[in-house]
Design goal:
The protein is α/β, with parallel strands linked by helices. It has six helices and 13 strands. It has a seven-stranded mixed β-sheet, with helices on both faces. A four-stranded mixed β-sheet has the order 6-5-7-10, covered by helices on one side.
Length: 226
């Protein structure tokens, strides 16, 4: 892993730490995310307060458990509306694990289909692998111009815990002025989407807050874009 460098501050000035809200809707390792973001240099708060979530430099949406339960919790906390409003204004949002999955159009668990936020088309479906859940360390295949994985070695490993994933990326860009999203893949049985960088919306299927130095660098990269 390559370290980061910073530009010295002008004498007599201070550099403001970026404010990141970890959205607390009842699903997610919010304390682990808080600690990891703070170590990466952010000013972090765990809250579901509307104004704080809207006005933060970055909003991180964690998620653990079932797709359906996470969507219900997010909706009850008005998180779906906050995410949509932030993205409409180009305000950064990052999803982690199920917090990434709910950004897709739908989740299918045990034959039951649940509507997601539909920021991206596609279905979250059971992993197609001999061993499920996918639990432990794995590598990723990131695009060369990825900002999220900048400074990270190609063989860096990240911590995954999941039984469902998106196996097909189906978003088509029809506007020539729009940049093609950067999609990162991993393999457990069949390849699946392990990260996406799409304008103000970024997400990872793995847990950067549990991924050691590589995860810390990744969060530092995200904070650096805020």
């Amino acid at each position: 892993m390559t370290g980061t460098t910073s530009t010295p501050a002008t004498p007599g000035t201070t550099t403001r730490r970026k404010k990141v809200v970890v959205f607390d809707y009842g699903f997610g390792n919010v304390r682990s995310a808080e600690r990891a973001l703070a170590r990466a240099g952010a000013d972090v708060e765990i809250t579901r307060d509307y104004d704080k979530a809207m006005n933060a430099d970055g909003l991180l949406v964690p998620g653990v458990g079932a797709f359906d339960a996470c969507m219900k919790g997010l909706t009850q906390a008005r998180g779906h509306w906050i995410i949509d409003r932030r993205l409409s204004g180009g305000r950064p949002v990052m999803g982690i694990c199920v917090g990434m999955q709910i950004l897709f159009a739908r989740g299918i668990e045990h034959g039951v289909e649940t509507e997601g936020l539909d920021e991206w088309p596609g279905s979250v479906e059971p992993l197609q692998a001999g061993i499920v859940p996918h639990m432990g360390w794995n590598t990723v295949d990131a695009p060369e111009d990825s900002q999220l994985f900048a400074g990270l070695d190609a063989d860096a490993r990240y911590y995954f815990v999941h039984s469902y994933a998106v196996h097909d990326w189906t978003l088509e860009i029809t506007n020539a002025a729009m940049r093609e999203p950067l999609v990162t893949w991993s393999t457990h049985g069949k390849p699946f989407v392990s990260a996406v960088e799409n304008g103000a919306l970024w997400a990872t299927q793995f847990h950067p807050e549990k991924s050691g130095d590589a995860g810390a660098q990744l969060l530092t990269n995200w904070i650096g874009t805020l």
